[in-house]
Specification:
The termini are far apart. The protein has eleven helices and nine strands. It has helices at residues 10-14, 21-24, 30-37, 95-112, 158-168, 197-204, 207-219, 221-227, 229-233, 241-254, 291-311; strands spanning 49-55, 60-68, 71-79, 145-147, 183-184, 194-195, 268-271, 274-277, 282-284. With 312 residues, it is an alpha+beta fold.
């Protein structure tokens, strides 16, 4: 038998450290998290707020959170499905929806800390670069750090729409225009890049979706009806897109809380293991049984199985 070198000895396994659970699951980048959470020693117990942006298959979620030893504490949250209360009933995962969600969160956070009157943000949405800290105010603006999780920070991603919405809403989030839609990289390193604010404005108001709708409507009406069936059902066409987002931005600035959902007065009736609701739905919910009843149930099953074996 040939000599085989032992690569992992007992000493290796004695010193082996199991990675954190969320690292094993591939959910948290702890290298990035440590950078965002770590606070300067001279700031003692000051909270370090993060602007958290996440995307699912159906919506955009934004949160303002800070870390504690017990876990993250969420100060305020906003999701794109809440935009229905502000007039955006469809298209909850595109760039324009991400911008509106970031704007909604910014106004909610500032309202919670009674800063909504002091920091109005950028009221004219033209896509230009804006930093609330550059304005003259007696009080320093509310500062957050962008937290994008495991997402790649590529140019033109929807996360930058959420960031731009929060910044225009009045939050101080350190950033540059290099990743915004409309930014053109310089041909040489010594030169500066060009930022086209008009191209970014088109994204904020959903003009890219509008152009696609118009193109499909002309070239392939069948595909248009399939792709934009929810838009058609809500009576929204290409001409109404920009007005829809403009009105939503105004509503968010006037009152970011939104309308509370109506409580459904549903009563339930139980029939053994079936629960019937007043709205017509049925659910199977087993009754709790005692230990004695459980043992009797097991004994009955065993007796039935033995009886069946005896018959055979």
């Amino acid at each position: 038998m040939a000599f085989v070198k032992v690569l992992k000895t007992a000493a290796y396994f004695k010193r082996f450290q199991v990675a954190k659970r969320r690292r094993r699951e591939g959910k948290t980048d702890y290298y990035a998290r440590r950078k965002m959470v770590r606070q300067d020693k001279n700031k003692f117990n000051n909270r370090k707020y993060r602007f958290v942006v996440r995307f699912t298959n159906k919506r955009c979620i934004c949160q303002c959170a800070y870390a504690t030893l017990r876990g993250d504490v969420v100060v305020a949250a906003a999701a794109s499905n809440e935009l229905s209360a502000f007039g955006i009933t469809v298209g909850h995962k595109n760039y324009a929806a991400a911008y509106a969600t970031g704007l909604l969160l910014a106004r909610r956070v500032l309202k919670k800390f009674d800063l909504d009157e002091k920091f109005k943000g950028k009221e004219e949405l033209d896509g230009e670069e804006y930093h609330v800290e550059d304005e003259e105010n007696e009080q320093r603006p509310f500062k957050c750090i962008l937290d994008v999780g495991l997402r790649r920070t590529c140019v033109g991603h929807r996360m930058w729409g959420a960031l731009k919405g929060a910044v225009d809403g009045g939050l101080h989030i350190p950033h540059s225009t290099k990743n915004f839609p409309g930014f053109k990289q310089p041909e040489e390193k010594s030169q500066e890049g060009e930022y086209d604010a008009e191209a970014h404005k088109d994204r904020i108001f959903g003009n890219h979706v509008k152009e696609y709708m118009e193109m499909l409507q002309e070239e392939d009406p069948t595909k248009y009806e399939a792709h934009f069936s929810k838009f058609i059902a809500e009576g929204i066409d290409a001409e109404k897109m920009e007005d829809m987002y403009t009105e939503a931005h105004e509503k968010i600035r006037s009152d970011p809380t939104g309308e509370p959902a109506e409580k459904k007065e549903i009563t339930y009736e139980r029939d053994e293991d079936t629960v019937k609701a007043s709205d017509g739905t049925e659910h199977v919910r087993s009754n709790k049984i005692t230990l004695t009843q459980r043992k009797e149930k097991v004994a009955a099953k065993i007796a039935a199985a033995q009886a069946k074996m005896m018959e055979e």
